[in-house]
Structures are given as structure tokens and as C-alpha cells.
Amino acid sequence: MPCRRRAFLLRELTEHATQPKFVYVHRWRPWDLIVWDNRQMMHRVRRYDERQPRDMRRTTVAGDAV
Fold first, then answer.
1. d(CA 66, CA 39)
2. How far apart are CA 53 and CA 56, in angstroms?
3. Per-position pLDDT tens, the chain of length 66
4. Are residues 37 and 43 in contact, defined by beta-carbon separation less than 8 angstroms?
């Protein structure tokens, strides 16, 4: 696929996937736990108060997505 076509397709897919109806924004509360599957998600970090503690852990699970 030509580079220009790839860039256009990627932009179209990203614009579709990031519509508000498809976006989850978490409002953090004490003891919250968030889990997602990187094989089927787009995610990004938003700014946060670096003075607040964060505990992030990663796990890897073998197998195919359901």
C-alpha cells in the first residue's frame, strides 16, 4: 500500500475509533484498579498529579483474545 494511502487509512481509523461514543475516561477514586488487553485496545496516559502515588504493574497472559 502506498505511504500516502497508509497515512490516510490510519488517520481515518484513528478518527473513527476515538469518537466519544467509543472512548472510556476513568475518574480515579481510591482503590480503583484498571485492566485492559493491549491486543484490542488503544490507550494513552493523561496528565496526572505527580505528587500522588501510583502503583502500576504489568502482567502477561498467554493465549488468544476471545
1. 11
2. 10
3. 888 999 999 999 999 999 999 988 888 898 898 888 877 888 777 788 888 888 888 888 887 766
4. no
Q: What is the rounded radius of gyration, in angstroms, for the C-alpha atoms of the chain?
A: 16
Q: CB–CB of 48/22 below 8 Å?
A: no
CA pair distance 46, 27, nearest whole angstrom: 11
Q: Are 54 and 48 in contact (CB under 8 A)?
A: yes
State the Cα angle at 23 between 21 and 25, rounded to 5°.
Answer: 125
Q: How far is CA 16 from CA 2, 8, 19, 20, 23, in A?
A: 21, 12, 6, 9, 11
User: Is the torsion defined by CA of 15, 17, 22, 26 positive or negative?
Assistant: negative
Contacts with 13 (C-beta within 8 Å, 6 or more apart), sequence order:
none
